[in-house]
Amino acid sequence: MSADEACLVNAARAGDRGAFATLVDRHRPQLLASCRRMAGAGDVAEEAAQEAVLQALLGLDRLREPARFGAWLVGIGLNVCRHLLRSRPAPPWQPEAASPDPQELAEAAELVARVREAVAALPAGQRRAVTLYYLAGLSQREVAAALGIQAGAVKGRLHKARQALRRRLAEFEEADIEEDEMTQSELVEVRVADVVRRDGRNVVVLEEVGGDRRLHLWIGPYEADFLAVHLEDLEMMRPLTYAFAARLLEAAGGTLEEVRISRLADETFYAEAVVASGGATRTVDARPSDALNLAVLLRRPVRVAREVLDAAPPASGEPVAPVAPALSATDIVDELLARLGPERPSVRRRS
Fold it and tell me: Is the dihedral of CA 130, 134, 136, 142 positive or negative?
């Protein structure tokens, strides 16, 4: 097929429109599937696919390896998707996060820079495989088709890339992530029982496992929406913030061991994620709302420092003053789906 592909490309370069049409017909299903994985099953994917075909036609002379026309076309499509998604306003259904403070913005920018630097340092073949599999969401078979290699080779590239990313990110974290020092005897296991919304306020309800104590934490509406989705064991077909964070963790070879509500200061709760990577275990500071979302999504344990549970104000059965009817996690999901409307992305139950 590679020789046939190269012949078609050479014919198209010579002005044979039928040859180019054959190439497009052959690879359009893969192109469209890749665009839909990145942009969702809407107009953006279709527009990106059409634009990619046009760019391929105009830039055919720049294709260095004619036998890899399919991978080249898919790459153009993904780049067009990124451009379109950046240039368009956020979809109306997506909840808006509260404006982060400067420290959060700096931490997020540093994390993104570290991941990009680690991925950029990979060999070209590994870098393309990681981008298509973890970030674009293609299956290993689809990545193999896009790169023009065997599925076994994709698996090998991903394995080597995970090892390299694990080592690289561990080097980054050595300087500023403290070792895990809190013992299990200082922690109380809890479960995320519910998230409750009333009068625009959102509260996470934590219940002691094997006990009767409860802890209430205030969180933002954006985090509450997704925590409700995770508690109902649902997921969006198009991966959003927390699913993306989970994929990045997996791509770097890390495992979330547990989440801890570690301290209470000035009526503010602080959390940390315990991450195992490269044979070492480290703790990473996090907002409780983000850490709890990731814990529920990945089905990992949640524990509260005993001194935090002892110092927190007693939690009654009603986390919010009874002014209006309270919404449970199920109600919040129903409300979210109603806001999405008929054009919402598909929602499915997690396996």
Answer: positive
Cα–Cα distance for residue pair 132/25, rounded to 1 Å? 22
- What the block records as the tokens of 348 is 């499915």
Residue 78 contacts by C-beta under 8 Å, 6 or more apart in sequence? Answer: 34, 35, 38, 132, 136
Question: What does the pLDDT look like over 271-293, one tens digit per residue?
Answer: 999 988 877 888 888 889 899 99
DSSP code of residue 98: P
Rounded distance between C-alpha atoms, residue 275 and residue 333, angstroms: 29
Among 9-13, 59-63, 66-70, 345-349, which is the least confidently predicted range?
Answer: 345-349
The H or E element that residue 152 is part of is helix 151-174
Cross-strand pairs, 170: none
Place of tokens 């193999």: 144
Closest CA to 322 of 217, 228, 201: 201
| Residue 13, both tokens | 């370069």
- Residues 201-254: tens digit of each pLDDT: 888 999 989 888 889 988 888 888 888 888 877 766 666 678 888 888 888 888
Distance of CA 153 to the CA centre of its chain: 25
Nearest 5 degrees, angle CA 241-CA 244-CA 249? 125
Distance CA 341, CA 193 (A): 28
Q: How far apart, in Å, do the first and last CA atoms of the chain sit?
A: 37
Decide if 293 contacts 226 (C-beta within 8 A). yes
β-pairing, 187-198 vs 268-277, is unpaired
Strand, coil or helix: what is 222? helix
Residue 264 β-bridge partners: 269
pTM, entire model: 0.46
List pLDDT tens digits, range 305-350: 988 888 876 655 555 444 445 666 676 666 666 665 555 555 555 5
Cα–Cα distance, 63 to 76 (Å, whole number): 11
How far, in Å, CA of 126 to CA of 262, rounded?
Answer: 38
Instruction: Report CA-CA distances (Å) from 32 to 109, 298, 302.
Output: 31, 30, 40
Does 161 score more than 70 pLDDT?
yes
